[in-house]
Design goal:
Residues 124-276 form the Rod shape-determining protein MreC beta-barrel core domain. The protein is of the alpha+beta class. It has 2 helices and 12 strands; from the N terminus they run ααββββββββββββ. Helix content is 37%, strand content 27%. It has helices at 2-32, 36-112; strands at 117-125, 134-137, 150-152, 157-164, 169-173, 182-188, 194-203, 208-214, 225-228, 240-249, 256-262, 271-276. The strands form 2 sheets. Strands 1-2-5-4-3-12 form a 6-stranded antiparallel β-barrel. The protein has a 6-stranded antiparallel β-barrel with strand order 6-7-8-11-10-9.
Length: 294
């Protein structure tokens, strides 16, 4: 009996130990596996997070992109503004440099022409309809300006005064095609002999002056300089008119005609000199001033 009780205690102990091992195993297995309702909750939460996270992320990316575009736009506008300022300043600098050079050249001209008084002036008016014919300058009779006085830039002759009021004057340009617009001119031939003729007429297509009434025996060639002759009393002698580009016989064969590229730019100029000189009896030019517009 005693032996049976001892065996029973041993059996109970073994069974208890075995049960404990089984319970521990079940407990450990439960930690690595989820119940179906736990998995459902986790899956549902994950889907919800994805549903909300996707549009929120898209909105956030869109807002970020808009900010970046706005920043780029602002920077672009700033750069454009600076570029416009730079372009404007560059134009001003070029204008100032051109004006500075023009004034320096005018000073050189003033020093080279000693026999006549030079009256400085600025071009203040020019109409589109008469662009090639007339300009208005800002000095007149109060400064001693009279009709038939020559007007020059630093590069050469551009025209003459045809009307003078108290404070302004009207200048007829050499590019005016009026028949009354003529200048006694001269050029040295290949032997150094002076050849005389008249500048009359302007070719609007080629932008060349016509040097006419040249004797047939004159030996002129391309590149020779044409200047005022001083005959006629309007223009002092020696003012540069331009250079010969071509010489040929006129349409009647009675004389030669040379085409002259003007030394002065009739299109763009700002500062001029009026050469103060009393008019004498004309030789190859019109004797009276006045408005010659047709």
């Amino acid at each position: 009996m005693k032996r049976f009780l001892n065996n029973r205690k041993l059996l109970i102990t073994l069974l208890s130990f075995l049960l404990l091992v089984i319970l521990i195993g079940i407990s450990l297995q439960g930690r690595n596996q989820s119940h179906w309702y736990q998995s459902f909750v986790r899956d549902t939460a994950g889907v919800g997070q994805r549903l909300f996270a996707t549009p929120i992320g898209w909105i956030d990316d869109t807002v970020t992109s808009i900010r970046e575009v706005r920043d780029v736009y602002k920077e672009n506008e700033h750069l454009k503004s600076r570029l416009n300022d730079y372009a404007g300043n560059a134009v001003k600098v070029r204008d100032l440099e051109r004006e500075n050079k023009e004034l320096k050249d005018m000073l050189d001209l003033n020093g080279s022409i000693r026999d006549y008084k030079l009256l400085p002036a600025e071009m203040i008016g020019r109409t589109a309809s008469e662009w090639q014919r007339f300009v208005t300058i800002n000095i007149g009779e109060q400064k001693g300006v009279k009709a038939n006085m020559a007007v020059v830039t630093a590069d050469g002759l551009i025209g003459r005064v045809i009307q003078a009021s108290a404070y302004t004057s009207l200048v007829q340009l050499m590019s005016d095609t009026s028949r009354t617009n003529n200048v006694s001119a001269t050029a040295d031939d290949t032997k150094g002999k002076g050849v005389f003729g008249t500048i009359e007429g302007f070719d609007e297509e080629t932008k060349l002056l016509k040097f006419t009434k040249i004797p047939n025996d004159a030996k002129l060639k391309k590149g020779q300089t044409v200047t005022t002759s001083g005959l006629g009393g309007k223009y002092p002698s020696g003012i540069v008119i331009g250079k010969i580009t071509e010489v040929k016989s006129d349409q009647y064969g009675a004389s030669k005609i040379a085409y002259v590229k003007p030394a002065a730019d009739f299109e763009q100029f700002g500062h001029v000199f009026v050469i103060e000189r009393e008019a004498k009896e004309p030789f190859a030019e019109t004797d009276k001033g006045g408005d010659t517009r047709e």
